[in-house]
Design a protein that fits this description.
Blueprint lengths: L8 H12 L16 H5 L6 H19 L5 H13 L2 H11 L11 E2 L7 H4 L4 E2 L6 H9 L6
Antiparallel strand pairs: 1-2
Helix pairs in contact: 1-3
Length: 148
């Protein structure tokens, strides 16, 4: 049963936040992969995945309203949204990412990064960025310069 809810499974993940409040059950809407299997087998066609997506957005909105200072995740997502909003900025960011190849030029992998990315490389190696972006490869291919 999810977090002490008397309703088990996907229905509990939908009902509990609505009965006792989203704030008291903030993790429940995220306890699903949203694969849709529950909807497929439901004899009355309850669209649980859609309901969970709605509840997830409520959890995020509530968290956003409660926080006056953006979290690092919010700042990163805002920065990513700004970058991806412009094709030119996005293309430039992809090209700049290739500089990451310098970090692993000897071993062929990136084994340490500065914080906060060190949390990732503390337990695993990061792959090197590709030598060319997909956009560059596609443009070259369209111009007839062959494939990589």
């Amino acid at each position: 049963m999810p977090n002490g809810s008397v309703y088990p499974g996907p229905i509990g993940a939908v009902l509990s936040p609505q009965l006792t409040g989203v704030a008291d059950n903030a993790s429940l809407p995220f306890a699903s992969t949203l694969c849709g299997a529950c909807y497929d087998v439901c004899p009355v066609a309850i669209d649980v995945p859609q309901m969970l997506v709605h509840l997830r957005s409520r959890v995020v909105e509530d968290k956003r309203r409660a926080s006056r200072v953006p979290t690092p995740e919010q700042a990163l997502m805002a920065s990513a949204a700004w970058t991806m909003d412009s094709p030119a900025r996005w293309a430039g960011a992809l090209r700049a990412a290739r500089l990451g190849r310098l970090l692993g030029r000897r071993s062929g992998r990136i084994s340490s990064l500065p914080p906060p990315l060190s949390a990732w490389t503390g337990t695993r190696d990061a792959p090197l960025p590709p030598t060319q972006t997909f956009r560059d490869w596609w443009a070259r291919r369209k111009r007839g310069q062959g494939t990589p």
